[in-house]
Write a structure and sequence with these properties.
By secondary structure, this protein is an all-alpha fold. The chain is built from three helices and no strands.
Length: 78
Amino acid sequence: MQCHSIDKDTIGPSFQKMGAIYRTIKDPESKLIDVMRFGSDAHLGPLSGRARMPDSSERPLISDAEGKQLARWILSLH
């Protein structure tokens, strides 16, 4: 929640905006998990202007299970 909000863009895009963007692409869950685990370079690049999801050297690692849970939650937001 440091860089994202549920419904408002902050440093990064809102979770609602991310869900809307990823729902338009093939295999959105795995691609969203990759970005959460490996940063913007994993897929799509920055989603909001020049903001970039940092790689794992700049934030805590998440497990596969945590990534799936977060991705499913983000993709469910409208």
